[in-house]
Design a protein that fits this description.
alpha+beta, two-stranded antiparallel ribbon, 7 helices, elongated, HK97 gp10 family phage protein
Length: 151
């Protein structure tokens, strides 16, 4: 298994040790910066039938559970479920974003493979996301360190 090094990670770890904790603002800004890149890529890769899926993806911040941690999810907008949920003549419900990501079975039992647009968005932009997270978190840490007179 090949190991890769994230450029700038050592400096970020050093600054965090100097402060003694991760400032919430640094975690928020870093996670948001990475999430915006993933959102942009997911919208670009989303299948275009009506365009609703591209417009229906958004970035949602998870509730803060742990200090110094922030998580943003790229997800379909629940307000657009009336567009995304398809109901067949038999009364079966299908969720369009999930069926496009993972695939679905046809009436005759054939498997239609998923487009994997969200998975591709992350896999193909991992390096860019890491750099954006480190850059945004680093800038915020520098502001905090300067404010406290440690820089």
């Amino acid at each position: 298994m090949a190991r890769s090094e994230i450029i700038g990670m050592k400096e970020l770890e050093r600054d965090i040790k100097l402060l003694g904790r991760v400032p919430q603002a640094a975690a928020n800004r870093g996670a948001n910066a990475g999430g915006r890149i993933a959102l942009r890529a997911a919208r670009a890769y989303a299948p275009v039938e009506t365009g609703a899926l591209k417009k229906g993806l958004f970035l949602k911040k998870e509730r803060k559970v742990k200090p110094g941690k922030a998580v943003y999810d790229v997800m379909p907008d629940p307000a657009k479920n009336d567009i995304f949920v398809k109901i067949s003549k038999e009364g079966n419900r299908a969720y369009y974003p999930a069926s496009q990501e993972y695939g679905f079975l046809t009436v005759d039992g054939r498997l239609i493979p998923g487009k994997r647009y969200m998975r591709r968005a992350i896999d193909e932009h991992t390096g860019e996301i890491e750099r954006a997270v480190l850059e945004a978190a680093g800038k915020e840490l520098d502001k905090v360190l300067r404010k406290k007179g440690m820089r």
